[in-house]
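Table 4 source record.
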Amino acid sequence: MIKRTLHFSNPAYLSLHQNQLAIDLPHLKSLGEKESKKAIPIEDVGIIILDHQQITITHGCIAALLENNAAIITCNQSRHPTGMMLPIDGHNTQSERFRYQIDASQPLKKQLWQQTVQAKILNQAAVLFNRNIPCENMVHWAKSVRSGDPDNYEGRAAAYYWKNVFPKKIDFFRGREGDPPNNLLNYGYAILRAIVARGLVCSGLLPTLGIHHRNKYNAYCLADDIMEPYRPYVDEIVLGIIDRGENFLELGTSIKTQLLGIATVDVQFERNKSPLMVGLQSTTSSLAKCYEGTIRRINYPIMRNFDARRLSKFNIEDDSPAITANEISEPGNDANHDELPF
């Protein structure tokens, strides 16, 4: 069952009552208790976002949410996510999975990063394809990624992608502190990051120990790794907002609501389709099995299988077989890349 994402952007008092999240909304008090007081089963909550400076939440409520593997996100005065709280114990064999993760070899981590980069580039190519933007170079780069991505195809693909994906009337440059619609991307990625971190904890993994990201000041390096192929789903939401002519200069309630819907976006895997939050659990579970050595591939979603037929609209001649996010190349040399903007 997909968990609920709750967003509180007004003053609220949140407490625990009979294993229910008791919600008291004082700004609706004049409408009566039916509107101002709500109750939601704790086990139904996956993510809760505290987006107002006058929200009070009891310790009992926090403990109950964490015991049920919920992620709690706090926002600053400018309403941007600044903190996240996750459960310590999210899986019944957690210590064993920690050990497998800690002991993972460098060649294994390089191969896992290769798969991650391939999946990310292919999904970025799918976004471009859906917008009638040439993407054959992206597909070629995805095929060319070696273990550890020593040739930095991720960076090449990102430069091409961000240069072309937005309408030409928007002079876009991707950066955390950049002009809108960077604000929408940052907010959407923050929600996605929380969903990924929650999935990792539920699979008994440490979100801190990454396969590629390794900034010593970053507590969510692995979450930043695994979220990479999922970022294009956020991009599609942002592009839809722009295409509809909505005002993206500020993060209004309507835009936030659309971005919060990332948890329920359908994602396609090789054998099935599921909501993103559910699919992410499959991804993180497969990663844990990769660490254990029982499988070799991370189960990432695939927006589109690219082959010569599907690329024919761009007059591409390609006799190679279809490429998916799970192809693996031989190990290569390590590469040190700077942390990308969040």
